[in-house]
User: What shape does this take?
Amino acid sequence: MAYEKQAKFSKILVAIDGSNHSMKAAEYAIDIARYNKAQLIALTVLDVYKIGYAASAFIASPVYGLEKLERKRKEAHEWLDNVGKLTSQKANDDIQFKPQIEESMSVAGTIVDFAENQNIDLIVVGSRGQSSFTKLLLGSVASTVVTYATCAVLVIK
Assistant: This one.
């Protein structure tokens, strides 16, 4: 018996970190959102621990890592602006686009929690991100999202 049910998505989340894989994931997410006339949320999670702006650093020195954090915020806005422009080009304003930046010490955990709190139907992620460490099959963020998300997850190579 063939599986014939087709999923309908009303809220789609795409995780953006500026990598080629995440931008490719954005293209897929835009196409799926357009097809479903769904809301598309592009989420960038800034890892304050990797940036060097974790709470313990803030207590020791309030400006430690602040300049780097501001640079990362600016980069994140640029990535999300690019996804917004691509969304407008591909979807002709047929879908609602919402950019979102979160700051956390757990990128994957923030993606999963955000999706659950916002009632996301589908998360779209790239198979690898910007990390210099490469896993054999799947990036650590994508792997964690697939493992813990309560909704469907599409991983784009």
